[in-house]
Design brief:
DSBA-like_thioredoxin_dom, 9 strands, Thioredoxin-like_sf, Glutaredoxin, 308 residues, 4-stranded mixed beta sheet, DSBA-like thioredoxin domain-containing protein, alpha/beta
Amino acid sequence: MADNDYLSQIHSEELDKFVVYGDLNCPFCFALHERFDAWSLLGKIEWRLIIHAPELSEAIFSLEDESLLANEVFAIHHRAPDVSVSLPRARPASSLATRLVMAIDRYDRKKVPDLRRELYRALWQEGLNLGDPAVLVTILANVGLEKFVEASVRKNPDGSVEPLALWEFWRLLGSEPQDLIEWQERWETDVSFARRIPIIENRTNNALLQGLPTEEALYQYLVGRRAHFVNDDVCVFQPRPIAIVFGWMDHLWPLVKILKETCEVLHFSEIASCRQMLIDNEEIDFLFIEDEFVEDDVLGELAELLKT
């Protein structure tokens, strides 16, 4: 959205009445955060981080989890073509990075919007693991917050720095802040939220905007009126070849890493869903199957469907 008149209208509003609930490991929240950044709103609208999948663990990142992740990124490419997003290898748990943001809020509140932006981009553009202390330490340095961990790191005789262990990083963050506990409870228990993210709340009239809106819908919500809005400068979605991956995406990651740069990647772990996708869609260009994942008869059936 590049129209200065519309941006001026948004900035003339009392924006502190809005609050967003979002998670760092949700691509739809990332897309909304990027739009707020493009509109210079990150320091004006409160962004409350919550953890929408506390049970998530890289050790048990299932086939279903892989499918959900790939299909969410596919949806972002279509629904928010103005936002650059790349499929990461896995969806990391967000609790460590979320607690880091809360700790920095107490340490240097003005740096929080920059830190949050870099955390989102590290995952959704660079594919980095937000559960890795070394990644978080690097991001802190990138936004000028290296002193936050300086006293906790150990230097070797040669001047190199010993990486912080996971438990050491947790200790550095301190106890769970009350704000985070209250935000999490509100998001989990308010029936009007329906446990959806992202969600924007207008605290003056309780109006909610759930999910990732179009730019026009977001504008109309923020200014509180129905107005015709056309954004001629938004990026137009450019169709790319569609590739289906059937099997463990993690096992096929060297291939997927190349594919995602030029193709839309869909992932399936269940034969019926994959079969139906091939039957219903003529636009599928490539089908990649993990050899040990299917029997020969299923492999032949899928290959024939793709041909037809």
